[in-house]
Amino acid sequence: MSELSPYLVLILVGFLPNEFWRVLGVILGGGLSDDSELIVWVRAVAVAVLAAVIAKLVVVPPAALAALPLAVRLVAISCGFLAFLVIRRSVFAGLVVGELVLLVGGFLFPA
Amino acid sequence: MFLAGVQASFRSVFALVLIGTYVGVGALAHDYGFSLAWVMLSTVLVWAGPAQVIMISALGTGAPLFEVALAVFLSAVRFLPMVVSLLPLLRGPRTRLRDLLLPAHFTAASMWVESFRLLPPLPQHARVPFCNGLAIGFMLSGHIGSVIGFYLAASLPALLTATLLFLTPMSFLVSTAQNSLTLANRLALAFGLVVGPLLTYFQVGLDLMWTGLIAGSAAYAVHRLRGARR
After folding, report:
1. Which helix (H) or strand (E) holds B5?
2. pTM of the entire structure?
């Protein structure tokens, strides 16, 4: 994590860029409409960044998860998402089904 | 009122959601070699699951600091509309700007949703302390989760650690899908899931930022085109 102290890094790349928007919100106060076109675009960009993070965690995951085959990870996240759609858009159902599929897949196809 | 807020947080469904989310964050941090103290401080200072996951995974894979900061910056835009819409509930005739900075810092999906449910019946002067208590209670649940995740990841067999790490993408995917109610946000999610790995595969620098701008703008363009036809 470079030669900077990890705590300084936390403030520089975590706290400050994140907090910027909250403080700006207080400063702008009521001057910004919740459904203005700018906000719609900005939210879409933020969702897409999050989507990229999700996809990267599955496709190029951290060590212990990378030990499972890519196909198992992809099938598991797809099944979890399908379960979420089918079972009353329940986050919990998606999570449980995705995890179970990953567990069974990892058991059947060890790396 | 502060304590009433803390108590309310433990009765909220988000207490469980946060424990689950931060079990994933704690496990991820352990896997990438961060200390538990660093993770818990990041929860206090950043207080945004997605930003923390971006930070931990990007720093853990050795991404340049500027790129990490930019990705966190872009992921946090959602707080602007959240704070703006929450302020009218908190602000009374005698509220000072600096009294609002702490609730603004605490603003995250959990606290935001529960504030709209729990604040309206309360008198104006009680709302800021209640809100702060609510968020601190949620943070406590997050800490419990990250301690559990951190130590479980250290001691579980490899396959179970993998399922802990899988909590993050799985829960973020379904909860983002659940929160994406507009066409623009749903398309941004779908496009981002495709564009993100493509850019990573072709080793494009600043891939998170480009995914956000390309997929987010494409989704916005579709939203505009649909609007124009109506």
Report:
1. helix B2-11
2. 0.83
A25 and A37 share a domain? no
User: What is the pLDDT averaged over residues A75-94?
Assistant: 95
pLDDT(A1) > 50: no
* pLDDT at A78 exceeding the cut of 80: yes
Domain match, A1 and A26 both: yes
With CA atoms as reference, the chain B residue closest to A97 would be B170
**Chain A residue closest to B53 (CA)?**
A53
Tell me, letter by letter, the H, E, C secondary structure of chain A.
CCCCCHHHHHHHHHHHHHHHHHHHHHHHHHHCCCCCHHHHHHHHHHHHHHHHHHHHHHHCCCHHHHCCCHHHHHHHHHHHHHHHHHCCCCHHHHHHHHHHHHHHHHHHCCC
Residue stretches of chain B with pLDDT short of 70? 230
Residues of chain A with C-beta less than 8 angstroms from the C-beta of B53: 53, 57
Q: How far apart are CA A54 and CA B99, in angstroms?
A: 35
Neighbouring C-beta atoms of residue A95, cutoff 10 Å: 22
Domain containing A3 equals 1-32
Count: domains in chain A: 3
Q: Are residues A9 and A49 in the same domain?
A: no
| Test mutation, B174, B180, B189, chain A, max A CBs within 10 A | B174
Q: What is the ipTM of this complex?
A: 0.89
Query: Taking CB atoms and an 8 Å cutoff, what residues of chain B touch A21?
Result: 76-80, 83
Are residues A99 and B38, on separate chains, in Cβ contact within 8 Å?
no
Question: pLDDT (tens digit, 9 = 90+) per residue, A20-76?
Answer: 999 998 988 766 665 678 878 888 888 898 899 899 889 988 878 999 999 999 999
A40/B182 CB distance under 8 A: yes
